[in-house]
Specification:
single chain, about 290 residues, alpha+beta, paralog of FGE (formylglycine-generating enzyme), 4-stranded mixed sheet, 5 helices
């Protein structure tokens, strides 16, 4: 992997290797009802759920403002700032092996590593596809009439508007919330989509914490948030250029620290990794 961001528990460069304990002060505040947070009420005049061109369900994230970033994480999560986003849809689940296999067949593309024998898309069709680089992810989304979510869209879809730490609230994750804290291994370490219902985001998206990291559209900028320290960001799309693309959400080998919705990492867009997948987004219909 080409990631270089430092881990709070390690002196070595950041990778997707299992990480250590959270920084002091980053421990989530627990409560019996998910930290006292509540899911926002959707009032926009759009369906709460649609089916994408690829047959995948998508959930609505309404237009409006949310708070992005954290003061209990790494330096690149600062400063906390307000972001205004237009309404959009995001895939309810990560793109699966089965759906990606249809894309590979349709465009006669080179399949991801470990995918060519056709066993993976058949026997693990409902697991999220991995070993896909950023360009593979972009290609699939375009084929499906969609796009990758921006970093800001991904974070709002994960944490909602109440500043929660994780998609489900502020309680520390358990095995009913997310797939995490496992040893490096084969496909048995990856969960099928929708297998952690208690880990849903406020809008009903699954696995935005754990299972696999997810590619987003933006170039990574360590100090990009500083642009919005005093003025709200409106539909931000990341730096104009860069060398690495952002990944979000943590993976099955990570600790709760990296499962936080504000946590950021990155990698070369040509890099393929067993801990990285993706999901798509799309704008609401212009007819509305």
């Amino acid at each position: 992997m080409g990631t270089t961001k430092s881990d709070p528990a390690q002196a070595s460069p950041k990778s997707h290797a299992p990480d250590g304990e959270p920084k002091a002060g980053d421990k989530a505040k627990s409560s019996s009802n998910g930290g006292g947070v509540h899911s926002p009420v959707v009032s926009a005049p759009f369906p709460n759920e649609i089916i994408g061109k690829d047959g995948s369900p998508m959930v609505l994230v309404p237009a409006g403002e949310f708070t992005m970033g954290s003061d209990k994480g790494d330096d690149d999560e600062l400063p906390i700032h307000h972001v205004q986003l237009k309404a959009f849809y995001i895939d309810k689940f990560e793109v699966t092996n089965g759906r990606f296999a249809k894309f590979v067949e349709a465009i006669q593309s080179e399949p991801p590593w470990g995918f060519a024998d056709k066993d993976t898309p058949l026997t693990h069709a409902d697991q999220p596809v991995r070993w896909v680089n950023w360009m593979d992810a972009v290609g699939y989304c375009l084929w499906a009439g969609k796009r990758l979510p921006t970093e800001a869209e991904w974070e709002k879809a994960a944490r909602g508007t109440d500043g929660r730490i994780y998609p489900w609230g502020n309680d520390q994750p358990t095995s009913v919330h997310a797939v995490y804290g496992l040893k490096e291994g084969g496909t048995e370490a990856i969960s099928v989509i929708g297998d952690r219902g208690k880990g849903q985001s406020p809008y009903g998206a699954h696995d935005l914490a754990g299972n696999l990291y997810e590619w987003v559209m933006d170039w990574y900028g360590e100090d990009y948030y500083a642009n919005f320290a005093t003025n709200p960001a409106v539909n931000p799309r990341g730096p104009d250029e860069g060398t690495v693309k952002v990944q979000r959400g943590g993976s099955y080998i990570n600790s709760p620290y990296r499962l936080r919705s504000s946590f950021r990492t990155k990698d070369d867009p040509a890099e393929q990794d067993p801990h990285v997948g993706f999901r798509c987004a799309q704008d609401v219909p212009k007819a509305h």
